[in-house]
């Protein structure tokens, strides 16, 4: 089965074709970062309009790269939520229209399920059960995955998501949007230990997170500092170390609690190199393993939607005509 995947939940237009026999055939991504940069964040209306402009050219490009005609498709999957409602509507309307014209089934995919299953996309040896750390701009969750669709929430953030904490902290230190990757890059030249911030909620049992207090700590440190470039890098390093170590402590605890030996990491913050290194070291020490999608499949992309959609369509799930999106949607 060849499935076209469409992702338009936020500020990236992602398209891919996944073949259930041959794997990923092609994928393409258009990022709206430059469009939103001057506003310091995503402007929903501009995001929707840009998805309208870019989606069909990307579909054409992806099909050409896969060496396919539209009539070779057996199904269409699109992100149905959670996300920005207008942006979601663009992908849903286009996906449903294509499926209707091609007379193939269409399925709306949960964006976080896409992230959750992304590590399986390129590693067929990976099988449930595993513990997944989902760390994006909107979510921070630990999930026990016992099978496709069999998810148990182990813990989640009580306030800011990890990516959101990166973005907000970057902003208050004057870094341009999107802050997360910029702050991580700056931390590379920071000196470890020059600034130490707390590891929130690690001193008590449980698997929930809280990241909103960290940005206040950083703000105070930044306001009281000499505000030099080196200090900014040092603070970035201190912040990154605090988030990464907090995530690692909770991941270790989740593995211990469930008795599971495989950890997978998904979502945009999964692209963070220091997080990858620390989780790798933690897993090795415990005799377990950790798997990450390649960085491009950690952040939003069409491939994860094509893959999750293909699994759902193969299981016989699809929806009747009508365009439905769910901007707020628990997995
Ligand atoms: O999954 P994603 O692309 O979009 C959703 O939120 O669904 O995740 C984006 C988030 C942003 O908050 C971004 O700052 C963060 O992932 N991010 C990073 C890095 N790359 C992306 N955070 C820390 N280090 C990175 N290298
Ligand atoms: Zn995402």
UniProtKB/TrEMBL annotation:
Cofactor note: Binds 1 Fe(2+) ion per subunit.
Keyword Oxidoreductase: no
Keywords carried by this UniProt record: Acyltransferase, Cytoplasm, Iron, Kinase, Metal-binding, Transferase, tRNA processing
Lineage top rank: taxon: Bacteria
Localization: Cytoplasm
Principal subcellular localization: cytoplasm
Gene Ontology cellular component terms for the protein in this record: cytoplasm
Gene3D superfamilies per record: 3.30.420.40
Enzyme class: transferase
GO molecular function: iron ion binding; kinase activity; tRNA N(6)-L-threonylcarbamoyladenine synthase activity
Family, per entry: Belongs to the KAE1 / TsaD family.
PANTHER family: TRNA N6-ADENOSINE THREONYLCARBAMOYLTRANSFERASE, TRNA N6-ADENOSINE THREONYLCARBAMOYLTRANSFERASE, MITOCHONDRIAL
Function in brief: Required for the formation of a threonylcarbamoyl group on adenosine at position 37 (t(6)A37) in tRNAs that read codons beginning with adenine. Is involved in the transfer of the threonylcarbamoyl moiety of threonylcarbamoyl-AMP (TC-AMP) to the N6 group of A37, together with TsaE and TsaB. TsaD likely plays a direct catalytic role in this reaction.
The protein's name in its UniProt record: tRNA N6-adenosine threonylcarbamoyltransferase
Source organism per UniProt: Arenimonas composti TR7-09 = DSM 18010
